[in-house]
User: What shape does this take?
Amino acid sequence: MAVQSLTPDWREWIEVNLNRNCTIRSMVEAMTDREIDPISAAAFITTVCREKQHAVSDDQLELKSSQSYQYEGSRISPGNRIKTHDRVVDVRMRLERPDIVLFGNVLSKEECDELVRRSREKVDRSTAIDPDTGASKVMPDRTSYGTFFKLEEDEFIGRIDRRLAEVVNWPLNHAEGMQILNYRVGGEYKPHFDFFPPEQAGSPVHTAQGGQRIGSIVLYLNEVEEGGATIFPQLSLSVVPCKGDAVFFGYFNSRGEVDRATLHGGAPVVSGEKWIATKWLRQHQRG
Assistant: This one.
């Protein structure tokens, strides 16, 4: 019979092999031989890493999502420039697998400064989602400060919300409100997924309204003196913050699969501070 949940025996096996520095690929292959499908195997390993705050080495992160995710093309329109209702956005880089696009000129310098100004007095210690309960709470993996703006909260926020919807070719009301994050010296967000992992008990709390997250937009609001890149460990890819730029990555297809190659994090800020805005896209309209 196929294994449907993370049993104590498998949890112990994963811990032992992580400590032995076995690669994720070899662990998934071994679990697949024992009637666990590759998606669940990778998810179980990720769960144990989070619970034990296990730092996964670059050598361990060999697993590529092509084993379990069907790519269907980018959500972003082709071309070198994307015209929105009020701005022309440049396409600086595209990656097909996973679906990652780097944009330039998404926000003006003045818009970046205004978002920071509005947020600076509001930010509080950021929370992350508890995988077991779905509750948001302060966790050691995420050492940033943040605040939120409601979708189309006012004319200024609404103009940016509309622009982003046009850039990623997705309905404005199929998204969460903008989150602003501030990372100070030493601040980081260890590698994680933005989607709600289907195997985690707390995920239905969030997918009940709006469905699964399908993609993320990270907007860079300032120049960081040193550090603070958005990192994709499985891809050996780092996106260095550049004021006004944004990176999009998609991770959900029409088959209901999630792309675990979009594992990402925020590298520690070495000098200065980092301000970003994050927008998460959803399957459906929320509320």
